[in-house]
């Protein structure tokens, strides 16, 4: 079945960018790019440097728009609609909830995030596994 709405979660990694490029090249339908901001409380970050707030959410939305523009440039001109969305919470839970709330019928995502920090690896390393295990729609994992 050809999807009518594809979700591409982006975390800024090369594999997530590749997933977006794959979605743009493969699917001629509505695509939503989702960036999930993971809140950390003051006990988990120095001076609440990672606390959520309007500025951080705006930055995430701007970053998602930049990633969409870069992916469009990589694959050439595309006409299908691409939207951006920003959610706050646990990445795998927010991706799965977004699928259910917004009639998404396919997810395309990178196999894992990149980063040197141990915290970043822990937050991103299991997201694709959790989405694969729990999603009610097909999931394409780009490696």
Give an overview in words.
With 143 residues, this protein is an alpha/beta fold. The chain has one domain (5-142): HUPs (Rossmann fold, 3-Layer(aba) Sandwich). It is 43% helix and 20% strand. It is built from five helices and five strands. It has helices spanning 14-26, 54-75, 91-101, 118-124, 127-134, and strands spanning 5-9, 30-37, 82-88, 106-110, 139-142. Strands 3-2-1-4-5 form a five-stranded parallel beta sheet, sandwiched between helices. Strand 1 (5-9), helix 1 and strand 2 form a beta-alpha-beta unit. The two termini are 23 Å apart. Mean pLDDT is 79; it is low at 41-49.
Kindly summarize this structure in a few lines.
It is built from five helices and five strands. The protein is α/β, with parallel strands linked by helices and 143 residues long.
Domains, number:
1
Q: What's the Cα radius of gyration?
A: 15 Å
- What's the main sheet like? 5 strands, parallel
Could you estimate the helical fraction of the residues in percent? Answer: 40-55%
Spatial separation of the terminal alpha carbons:
23 Å
**Can you give the mean pLDDT?**
79
Percentage of residues in DSSP E strands: 15-25%
Task: State the oligomer.
Answer: single chain
Q: Outline the low-pLDDT stretches.
A: 41-49
Helix run count: 5
Strand order of the largest sheet: 3-2-1-4-5
The CATH class is Alpha Beta
The CATH homology group name? HUPs
SSE diagram, text form:
Elements: E1 5-9, H1 14-26, E2 30-37, H2 54-75, E3 82-88, H3 91-101, E4 106-110, H4 118-124, H5 127-134, E5 139-142
Parallel strand pairs: 1-2, 1-4, 2-3, 4-5
Helix pairs in contact: 1-2, 3-5
């Amino acid at each position: 079945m050809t999807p009518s709405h594809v979700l591409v979660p982006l975390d800024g990694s090369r594999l997530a960018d590749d997933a977006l490029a794959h979605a743009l090249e493969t699917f001629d339908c509505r695509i939503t790019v989702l960036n999930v901001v993971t809140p950390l409380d003051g006990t988990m970050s120095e001076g609440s440097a990672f606390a959520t707030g309007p500025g951080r959410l705006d930055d995430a939305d701007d970053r998602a728009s930049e990633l969409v523009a870069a992916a469009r440039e990589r694959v050439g001109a595309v006409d299908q609609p691409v939207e951006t969305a920003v959610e706050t919470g646990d990445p795998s839970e927010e991706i799965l909830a977004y699928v259910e709330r917004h009639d998404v019928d396919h997810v395309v995502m990178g196999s894992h995030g990149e980063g040197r920090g141990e915290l970043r690896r822990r937050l991103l390393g299991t997201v694709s596994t959790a989405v694969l295990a729990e999603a009610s729609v097909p999931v394409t994992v780009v490696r």
